[in-house]
Each structure stands twice: as structure tokens, then as C-alpha cells.
């Protein structure tokens, strides 16, 4: 996987690009939102601008370089305004899992739907055949967004371990790319 050849990806006014130092304040602020804290299941319990900058310079860069992880910022095309985060992880030979969260000011505007469309284009460019996602069955916004973006439920909810290490019931989704 060579993310450097295919990023950034744009779709209908939204751009996916690697998380960068300039996103640190907005990213850290977004992770303090109650909905993000409840549903995003981020790996760290707390994010500060400094931890986000360190993440961008270490894990993000390393994951992009070796093709194992893409921590991306969702930004507006016109002003590069941070809207949220989208991550491709658990990348295998032909599939990856996608996770996303939006800052409160970006919700209700179709941003997540457009970011998921951009992530599907990115996954196709990388040669993947399937994107998967999972969400808390009570997260109606995420379920509705995934369905609108073409993802279909993949069986009944089942227990899984989230990126934060929490074991919980999750609804899996699948999007064929070919």
C-alpha cells in the first residue's frame, strides 16, 4: 500500500489528507466532544494538541509509510478547515476497516457521507476490494451514514474489541468496492 501516491483524496467539497500539525488544536478539541468520547473509541483516553502533534509525526507518518494505517483529517476543500477524522486500519491484502468522527460544527451537513465516499475512492486506488466498518448499534447517526454511503449490515451485532480496547456489542458493515 502506498498512501503517498494517492493522497490527498477529494470528493464533493471534502478532502482526506494525513493528520498534520496544523490539525492539532481542532483534533484535540473534537475529541473532548461527548459524542466523540462515547462513540469514537479512540486509542488514547485523552488528546492534547501536543499528543496530536506527536501522533502526526510518529504513528501517522509510520503507518502511511508502511501502508498499515492511515489517520486522516477530513477538511473542507476551500479553506482546509478541520471537520473530523477518518482512519483506515486493520489493512489486509484486499480489505481495510474504516472509522470516522466529526467535530460538532461539521455534523448534519453530509460531511461523513462525502468522507466515506472519498475513503472508498482511496481504498479502490490502493487495490482493496472491501471496506468494513463497525459501530455501536445505538449510534443511529453512524448507522444511517454508513447505509447512505452504500455499506450494508454484515450479520447481527456481535462482541468485538474496539480500538480503545473496550469489549462491546458492535454492528459490522461491509462495502464491496468491485
From TrEMBL:
InterPro entries: Acyl_CoA_acyltransferase (IPR016181), GNAT_dom (IPR000182), N-acetyltransferase (IPR051531). Residues 14-178 form the N-acetyltransferase domain. It comes from the Bacteria. One of its GO terms (molecular function) is acyltransferase activity, transferring groups other than amino-acyl groups. It holds the Pfam family Acetyltransf_3. Keywords: Acyltransferase, Ribonucleoprotein, Ribosomal protein, Transferase. Residues 136-145, 159-172 have a biased composition (Polar residues). Residues 133-178 are annotated as: Disordered. This is Acetyltransferase, ribosomal protein N-acetylase. One of its GO terms (cellular component) is ribosome. Belongs to the acetyltransferase family. RimJ subfamily.
Amino acid at each position: 500500500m502506498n498512501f503517498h501516491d494517492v493522497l490527498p483524496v477529494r470528493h464533493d467539497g471534502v478532502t482526506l489528507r494525513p493528520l498534520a500539525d496544523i490539525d492539532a488544536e481542532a483534533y484535540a478539541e473534537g475529541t473532548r466532544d461527548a459524542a466523540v468520547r462515547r462513540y469514537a473509541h479512540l486509542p488514547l483516553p485523552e488528546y492534547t494538541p501536543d499528543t496530536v502533534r506527536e501522533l502526526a509525526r510518529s504513528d501517522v507518518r509510520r503507518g502511511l509509510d508502511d501502508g498499515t494505517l492511515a489517520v486522516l483529517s477530513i477538511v473542507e476543500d476551500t479553506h482546509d478547515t478541520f471537520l473530523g477524522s477518518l482512519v483506515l486500519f486493520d489493512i489486509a491484502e484486499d480489505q481495510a476497516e474504516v472509522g470516522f468522527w466529526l467535530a460538532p460544527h461539521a455534523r448534519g451537513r453530509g460531511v461523513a457521507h462525502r468522507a466515506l465516499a472519498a475513503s472508498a475512492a482511496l481504498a479502490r486506488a490502493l487495490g482493496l476490494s472491501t471496506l468494513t466498518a463497525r459501530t455501536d448499534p445505538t449510534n443511529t447517526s453512524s448507522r444511517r451514514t454508513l447505509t447512505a454511503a452504500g455499506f450494508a449490515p454484515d450479520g447481527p451485532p456481535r462482541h468485538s474489541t474496539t480500538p480503545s480496547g473496550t469489549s462491546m456489542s458492535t454492528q459490522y458493515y461491509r462495502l464491496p468496492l468491485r
